[in-house]
Sequence to fold (321 residues):
Amino acid sequence: MPRGPRLDAPGTLHHVIVRGIEQGCIVRDDTDRKTFVERMGLLAKGSDTEIYAFALMTNHAHILLKSGPDGISTYMRCLLTGYAQYFNRRHKRAGHLFQNRYKSIICEEEAYFDKLVAYIHLNPLRAGLVENLQQLAEYPWCGHAVLMNKVRYDWMARDYVLQFFGRKEGTARQAYLQFLESEQGIDREQELSGGGLVRSQGGWTNVRSMWKRGEKALGDQRILGGDDFVQAILNEAAEREDSDLPVNERLRMLDNDLRRLCEAEGVTLAFLQSGSRMGKLPILRKQIARKAVFEYGLTLVDTAKRLGVTPNAVNYMLKDR
Fold:
């Protein structure tokens, strides 16, 4: 069965799963892990994407996020393309790093938020990367350590997550930890890693009961939620045209921006690309770099070519807020 188009409504809750191609590693050491996590956070801040939970494994990663104004596609393209270029360069390899199509499931927040947070954060424990919850609380490549206040990432929406478990920090953190312990013995792999009719309705027993009553149940593999939620998301998707422009079109738009900004500042494009740091050139390059990556979803390499600098220089411009 062909896959449906990506559901990319801004401001919706997504459970994103990215996997290495042919089950290969996407990280080999802590330097890779730090780079992936830093890039995930940097791009989240730049695109108003909210990160609620994450777990970076060896050959895959889980992220629970709420997409920003531009939707999820631009964010994920920047994250995966930029990281893959870094990984291939560092490890002297070529070819694809990730499976061609990451998995994103729009989730009904009220029904599934706490379960998704727990499921994602328990991944390192279930995979044997840590031995117990105490070690998980110190594990920097998972959002659980942030919620337990052992690791600080200012881009993770820690307060938003804890408010689901209590109003005060201490009681909320304790309630979250108790919930996590209760979820340890529950296998939610099938329930939370995909949508569809059975998952949307809470299992085959509920689906059969609905059929016996003559009721129809709506389901979609890209959505985790009940009938009303699924229908609302599908209706919104049907009304919204696909705005994911080809790379060549996005590059053309950036070139137009470059010419306009250079004219406004009274500099030539050649001077901008010369590497000079005179006057307003550093500020202008930074402005263009942020627009190219965060708004147009272009890679560091494509952006660097337009600015006459190295990809590392573009990366530095994005970090320098």
